[in-house]
Amino acid sequence: MRYDFESKLNRVGKGSPKWDRMVKKRPELSTGEVVPLSVADMEFPIAPEIREGLKEYLDQNVLGYTEANDPFFEALISWMKRRHDFDVKREWIINTPGVVPAIYAAINKFSNKGDGVIVMPPVYYPFFSAIELQNRKLVRCPLIKKERYEIDFELLEELASKEENKILLFCSPHNPVGRVWEKEELEKIAQIVEKNNLIMLCDEIHMDFVYKGHKHTVFQTINDKVAEKTITFTAPSKTFNLAGMMLSNVIVKNKDLREKLTDSLEAMSISTCTALGYKACEIAYNECEDWFDKCLDVIDENQKLVKDFFESKHPDIKAPLLEGTYLQWVDFNSLGMSNEKLEDFMKNKAGLFLDEGYIFGKEGSGFERINLAAPKSTIKESLDRLDKALKDLRG
């Protein structure tokens, strides 16, 4: 089957927040010629197996109250084993309508007001709100920026040793910097988690997006001891562009942690998933592996296109290749612009609607995050506009 990764979509007026925000700011862009490359959902048509499978499901079922069934669990468990050599037991799985609300519930349950939650910025910005809106203390352990970002293990050890810090909220692969952590790095983190009795909340929603030369290791598989302290957050939403289906899979081996998290989710009324969400996940994991592998190839080509563009035309701007995710982290600090001026330049001069680096923490100032899950023609057109704007800027 030939999959379509080339057609340009126009999602204006269809409920897409990033498209509608773009048009609200610049109404003349409602024609769909400019594609926003910000929020992390794909600009590809849905996998045909999912589209046709859901049609068949709707022909044969009603959309009443629905819970996960045997085919759903079998599909999920098989995917984790095939793609990640992760042996998941059915009873470890908690379904939630999203990773973010599940992280909120976990922070609420496993810490008290005033307790510290360690994060490694620049990092996925809902981490900040999940901590601060619940009156926990945001404890920063910034990544060290070198040719590839590194973990500051010395600082992490120091922060983890403080009694008031209860949780490590970790992103693997890392959004937005695109690191896939080496197993040796994860083993060092595991030692710190065990030694200091931390709860490890590991967001692995981008676990399937890994490029040649890199391998994702599920943190929970490092050793049996750390598995008992870890809650792993996964979903088909990034892999198959199913965020609108509101279905995530939280994997918790430790029975006590699992029961406490379930209690927290129920107390916050975060427990109901949708009939179509369960079915879409089942179809995706059973039938769409080939679609995803081809999708990964397209994104890999796009990231190389972006890197080559900057190296050949604007070498002061750095766009290193991704190790994981589909979100390229580009350093525009050489332009010497404030965050406000850089954002204005992108939107109003280059016609690029990206995720601004500063939303990922102060460590992201001067960066832009580019969503590469779009047709190659869209990426080329975006780079052409940026090239013209940069040439005008440089005189």
Distance between the termini: 48 Å
- Across the major sheet, the strand order is 1-7-6-5-4-2-3
Structural class: alpha/beta
Q: What is the count of DSSP helices, taking H or I runs of 4+ residues?
A: 13
Report the count of strand segments: 10
User: Any idea what the radius of gyration is?
Assistant: 21 Å
Mean pLDDT: 97
Order of helices and strands: HHHEHEHEHEHEHEEHHHEHEEH
Considering the chains and any ligands shown, give keywords for the structure.
41% helix; seven-stranded mixed β-sheet; three-stranded antiparallel β-sheet; 395 residues; alpha/beta; 10 strands; single chain; 11% strand
Describe the model.
The protein is of the alpha/beta class. The protein has 13 helices and 10 strands. It has helices at residues 17-25, 48-60, 70-84, 99-110, 126-132, 153-160, 183-195, 224-227, 255-267, 275-287, 289-313, 339-349, 376-394; strands at 93-96, 116-119, 137-140, 165-171, 199-203, 230-234, 248-251, 327-331, 355-356, 367-371. The strands form 2 sheets. Strands 1-7-6-5-4-2-3 form a 7-stranded mixed beta sheet, with helices on both faces. It has a 3-stranded antiparallel beta sheet with strand order 8-10-9, with no helix packed on it. α7 links the parallel β4 (165-171) and β5 (199-203). α4 (99-110) crosses α9 and α6 runs parallel beside α7. The chain is globular and about 60 Å long. The termini are far apart. The model has no long low-confidence stretch (mean pLDDT 97).
